[in-house]
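Forwarding the complex inputs:
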Amino acid sequence: MDTKTKPVAIDQLRIDGPRLWDSLMELAQIGATPKGGVCRLTLTDLDRQGRDLVTRWAREAGLMVTIDRIGNGFMRRPGRNNSLPPVVAGSHIDTQPTGGKFDGNYGVLAGLEVVRTLNDHGIQTEAPIEVAFWTNEEGSRFVPVMMGSGVFAKAFTLEHAYAATDTEGKSVKDELERIGYVGPEEPGAHPIGTYFETHIEQGPVLEDNDKTIGVVTGVLGIRWYDCTVTGMEAHAGPTPMALRKDALQVATRLMQEVVACAHRHPPHGRGTVGMVQVHPNSRNVIPGRVKFSIDLRNASDAICAAMDADIRAVAARIAAETGLAIAIEQVSEYPAQPFHADCIAAVQRAADRLGYSNMPAVSGAGHDAVYMARLAPAGMIFIPCKDGISHNEIEDAKPEHITAGCNVLLQAMLERAGVA
Amino acid sequence: MDTKTKPVAIDQLRIDGPRLWDSLMELAQIGATPKGGVCRLTLTDLDRQGRDLVTRWAREAGLMVTIDRIGNGFMRRPGRNNSLPPVVAGSHIDTQPTGGKFDGNYGVLAGLEVVRTLNDHGIQTEAPIEVAFWTNEEGSRFVPVMMGSGVFAKAFTLEHAYAATDTEGKSVKDELERIGYVGPEEPGAHPIGTYFETHIEQGPVLEDNDKTIGVVTGVLGIRWYDCTVTGMEAHAGPTPMALRKDALQVATRLMQEVVACAHRHPPHGRGTVGMVQVHPNSRNVIPGRVKFSIDLRNASDAICAAMDADIRAVAARIAAETGLAIAIEQVSEYPAQPFHADCIAAVQRAADRLGYSNMPAVSGAGHDAVYMARLAPAGMIFIPCKDGISHNEIEDAKPEHITAGCNVLLQAMLERAGVA
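Prediction (whole assembly, two chains):
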């Protein structure tokens, strides 16, 4: 632990923004891309280098590092009462193939910066503080996504995760062993008292509202469907309008309704058709079959179920009106995950106390915090990212927002951990 | 010329249905596919075999065969007054890769059956009768389609046609020479007095109306466009509905309007979106760009122009309402081609006299008759095809309809040629 203590009132305590920024930029050098992004896919040599750097920094900050069997890392700063479960800040350090510098990495290094700040000021917490990094959050190389936190929360088994292979046939187990990150601890055996995750928003809402902090109230539930409309392919010339069974004409009505359905379930309803396949996809042939994806999201499972019923009823009505077959098959479902009221309140209070403009936010994308919320009180802190863009090499965030989010994390963690 | 003459009143004259059917089935053996269709692509060895068979039959029926420099064939039965331009029945014998037995082939062999019938009964016409087959109507192997008749009508040059290459880089000129079908005659030098083309409808209207004969009044004009809607791709989760620039949501509104535009221009308006490309076409990404084809058709160039103005106005309105860019680029235009009133009337009278149920029809697809109509009075005779299906190995037509169409051709040709 650092020894240069500076007495300061807890509510005056601030993290060292430039130090956090420098650490982010240094970690971003591992796997840096020419366009300014990062490609550090999970369980590659670059991932090992990233893990090695972060755990070296942790040890330099006096933390004890534990790795579990799926490669999740826990970096512990003892509290006064070490029988209490730790207050954990975590996220991930793997990236998308054309990822940015902030997604995930920020949440881990913000946790480390909290520790460094506590060390600077010689502050002892009542409960222990931990910083966690979770294996393979991104899911770009191995499916499922949020693998380490999912195994930890027993959403699926360690064996299932180990067996996943990349496109070259390499398995998670082999790659984890190869980079030396199979630890001794059983996933999930590690206690979690409270979990916070600081993250760029990955959406445009904070920027659009000119707010510094998003107080995240939960993560939207997601339902994915494949929809197929079957008509009859025919020549565009010789077939009069009245005798057509145009699958695309019917499919586009339903695609419009996916968006309308989201608007019918405000404020958090989301409806997206992202993928469309037209058969035979020829300029002068009336489409005989159209397959498309539907992505519905909302803030509670009950509203997601209402959206499901809504879109199915609309599809049945359109099928009856047009006489064309419409098949809707659900392919995935992720339940909504509200965060814990105490954690939400802690984040809200910290942001208010620190004088940062803030607003309630929902996360439309999944995070490791979703699984942690099944195990312990959990919450998230969002900061704006430029143009809402993420999973892209041009992903960007402002230093003052990076600093602000970490200050909120510091205050929220101290509230939950208590100061000795 | 056949010598077994049977005296018969002209209006009692009937073609030999089984003989025509047998010839169709025999020609269909060349390039026969396991599924019952025909693959006899233009200028292949199989096309040569087909041409050889048809010209052998023509010579056996006493016809004089002339080939022009683009490989079009003219098979001539002299009239009493050979200074008159011939009354020509024609079509093509090349097929689609997965084509049927009737498309094109029927029009050529119906002309041959007319000649055989005249021979059977020792009937001399005033004007000569000719049967024509046009090179590469289908355009599957070489572009442009309707190549032989197009060169003949000077829609484009012989050199342009010669230079066309297939996917293997083989040229029309080389392939035409290879199969021995470069004739001495200059394309277009051959006089045409009147032109008739008998064809399966390739659409569902006659079958739907339970009619035997379609009296074709013209061929629809066609305009082809590429339309691109540009929005902003973003994550389906974190992006609220109000902050989206969903290119597919806007594109599907316009796709609906393509169909509505056709309905606004009855009775012959056709509007089809056949091809759609969504970018990036990923389930959980709001589409940033959608490109799709528009195919508009109608019976006159003036109405086609009105449809063009209609869809552009709608696109401009949608672009203004949504703020997304919509670009419409016209990629092709084929003018409408009405047929000659005298030819339409001749077909109509023949069908009525023969007691065949009939109705006016338009052709939504192009035919060699479109180019012939630029040179001489022209008309077409449609017969039903099963389920309106063509360009498919399951293309089918009933023997009684095959016979009926040929009887109409016979009577119409005799009306135009005169009986000596």
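The two ends of chain B are 16 Å apart (CA to CA).
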